[in-house]
TrEMBL record:
Protein name, UniProt field: DUF4440 domain-containing protein
Domain of life: Bacteria
Residue intervals passing through the bilayer: none
Domain DUF4440: 38-145
Keyword Transmembrane in annotation: no
Keyword vocabulary terms for this entry: Signal
């Protein structure tokens, strides 16, 4: 076998080996039970907000919780007041955690995910995505959300991502 043919064979074998072990950025992370607890904790925020359930909402928040959303800083009370006002104005939100990337280190954890949802009002329903993250601490045996961040994905970027 000539040197060039052997070099091409080795290069091809290495390329196949690397591609077999690489995972695409959009691949779903296999979650451990502890990581699943983090996802469930964050999902509780969405469940509570959709139902205007302040007690459930507060049950997963740390006392010093805050969120950056829509270019503003909110605490737990102010974000729930904002959501309730949106509901009174006829807006409904659906949120869904997708592609969670969860990291746990002792009594702290962080999660980054794509929130795929919908916004419905009198004019109709539009699909919407947000890039979001949260930082959590284990307090008295339960995970509590200390900080969240949400950035709305512009509609043009959502279309590009689907292609």
């Amino acid at each position: 076998m000539s040197f060039m043919l052997r070099l091409a064979s080795v290069t091809m074998a290495l390329a196949l080996l690397v591609s077999a072990n690489a995972s695409p950025a959009s691949a779903q992370q296999e979650l451990t039970p502890k990581q699943t607890q983090i996802v469930k904790t964050v999902n509780t925020v969405f469940t509570a907000a959709q139902a205007d359930d302040t007690t459930l909402f507060d049950s997963v928040l740390a006392p010093n919780f805050y969120i950056f959303d829509g270019g503003a800083r909110f605490n737990g009370d102010s974000i729930m007041a904002f959501i309730k006002a949106q509901h009174r104005a006829g807006k409904r939100y659906e949120w869904s955690i997708t592609e969670p990337d969860v990291h746990i280190s002792g009594k702290t954890a962080w999660i980054a995910y794509i929130n795929k949802g919908r916004i419905t009002d009198a004019s109709g329903t539009i699909d919407q995505q947000w890039l979001e993250s949260a930082f959590l601490e284990k307090q008295a045996g339960s995970w509590k959300i200390v900080f969240m961040h949400s950035t709305r994905v512009p509609m043009a970027s959502q279309k590009d991502r689907k292609q």
